[in-house]
Amino acid sequence: MRAKDARVLLTGATGGIGKAAARALRAAGARVMLSARSPEALVDQANALRSGGDIPTWAAADLCNPQQVQQLAAEAASWRCNVVVHAAGVPAFGPLAGETPEHIASVVQANLVAPMLLTRALLPHLQRLPAAQVIYVGSVLGALALPGFSVYSATKFGLRGFAEGLRRELAHTGVLVQYLGPRSTRTAFNNADVEAYNRATGTAMDDVDIVGAALVRLLEEEQAERFLGFPERLGVRLNGIAPAAMDGSFRRHGKSLADLPSLQERTEP
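Above: the chain's sequence. Below: its structure in token form.
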């Protein structure tokens, strides 16, 4: 779909990647409905994206609230969205022993269950259109799991699997399902511990505008999946062929995780 023909519901719009996606989509000519939890942040963002007399519409919603998911779907359908970009999500980094059951459940709910339920709520509307697209902003970690990201990777592997299954389920319809896998990105989503881990392991970080531009290309080129960065793309391919053979490649990552002082404190009895 050409960006200028797109009417995009963008979740997680006030996050780092969400803001970059909104800028890139608007610059390419798309209409955008911004969505996030904070009305105040959405108003500020809509005003910042104003172009002449055109200002994006917005709809506040907590995607972990099923009632608000249904309400957002109804608003987006009434607005006549034909593209949904799921960019909302929450982070999780550290040894599993340091994660609480409550945090694990909340990450799974926000990163996996919420986009599944929003897609389900919007699907009847999207299937009535001649063409529609659903894009999940996941992560390279949805195809290549690393030490310290077991919980986060579980949600992104699940999201990628959901996208793959749904894409095949809807292949006979006008709804295209896609997955974008950025590598580590410079946003507040990655805290100081993640940045220290990335430095210790030599992991590159992309600027958010690279992700925004990649999202627009994915929308227009209609590719099923796209992963960003090298050697990450190669790692995804090799891990898909022989994941166990890749285990030894990440010993440095496991050691770097264990050596982070702030994370040691979280796992001490």
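Residues 148 and 257 are 6 Å apart (CA to CA).
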